[in-house]
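This entry is passed on directly below:
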Amino acid sequence: MKHTAKNLGKVIVVGSGAGGLSAAVRLANQGWDVTVLEKEATPGGRLSAIQAEGYSIDVGPTIMMMNDVFHQYFKDLGRSIEDYLDLVRVNPCYHLHFTDGTCMKPSIDLKELLDEIRSFNPDDVDGYLKYLAQIHRRYQVAREKFIEKSFTKPSDFFNIDTLIGMMQLRTLNNMYDDIARFIKDERLRISLTFQAIYLGVSPFDAPSIYTLIGYVEHGLSGVWYPKGGMNAITQALVKLLGEFGGSLRVNAEVEQILIEQGRAVGVRLANGEVLKADVVISNADFPYTMENLVPGSHRGKYTPQKLNSMEVTCGAFMLYLGVNRRYDNLHLHNIYFTPDYKYSMDELFTRQQLPQDPAMYVYRPTKYDDTVAPPGKDIIYVLVPVPNLSSGIDWKKETHRYRELVIKKLERQGLTDLSKHIEFERIYTPETFQNRFNTYQGAAFGLAPSLFQSGYFRPHIKSKEVPNLYFSGASVHPGGGVPVVLVCGKLVSEQVLVDHNLSWQPKMMTAGLSASY
């Protein structure tokens, strides 16, 4: 059964990433006529999956946290998340492998976690408890005053309430220095700051507020796995879109956002087709939108020079492997560090050199989910942070060599004879991210969340120059990460309603319905 639309107006969403789908679903739920345009053959963008030879391998994000955001998202739509996603709590959160041979396995059980910290350094138990005591309030402030609030005009940000919030967040030092106030053991410091890589930045540069990520993972909501992989989130959003009367068009690349008399009025596709709309939302990476989709006279301050001066995140070298055996020694999430944490970060972010002894993240969804691979086989997903394309690295020359280097390191880390068991393989480099996902300079995580590229200083969800033009995704406020991008879509949908003198109309909780297209 399809939701009956109220025909409030026509909305076109460019791109079917999490932010675009989030906004699209919410507006369709409220009665707008919504069409999502996706240039690829499948929806999701970086939240899509590679489907081949019986394997279903997530392309991008793999760690699900802040599960309350997902539950609230479905509740706002009058739906129960259980009808769309089968969520499994992950414990321990991950395995952290250090070069001295130790392995930390942070638990969601506080006693177990404190016992593990004690085994690394007894003196740091007290420090960790002090960290917990101050981080919860900072997390609440971040959610209430920054993440779940849009900043579309100066008064939204430059006010007493926000100033007090910034003082409470204590954002002027970096993640590593902030944690070092509480924790002395280097391995434990790493365990509470490596999450900066989720954002594509160095913990020695990332604002200290991002120490809340470790707290969210093993001190608050935990880490979750959606059965079917993270792409199941995309599939759930697409299903919701259909239930509320919206439509998704794949293989529909947008060439330009059309602006007439200063207002966004639709889009032109690469095949020449013109689609008119009352509202246009670009979920393409913000710098790409400005450089390629918005005509030059309507870009405001976001000239090519301005975009080139903005700080972007690192790139990612990705191996997506299907193997004809099981590696049961691997957890769902596995991270392998290097001997010198600071040197590795500087090599990657400051010197922009290809790490010769790379830190690696390995994801094995088959630990929790047998449906994503053929019986008796495994998925080995490998992410190596590498410099973005501004480094000048020639990936046509480096890809094979670097692939061999990574495989050999994995084999030394316990993935015995990995090279002999690979039966399916795909490799993505920063060039792939630039060419396929339109990310600026091949940055895997969008614009960097530096202090002066956060909050009001980050690209806004609403165009200042062009009425009826909006933006969603990791490169606009409030930033990256799947739950935060979902919130971005929520903020966009609410802004559209406000700009059209409407308000959100809550829905009664109902069971999931079958989508029809």
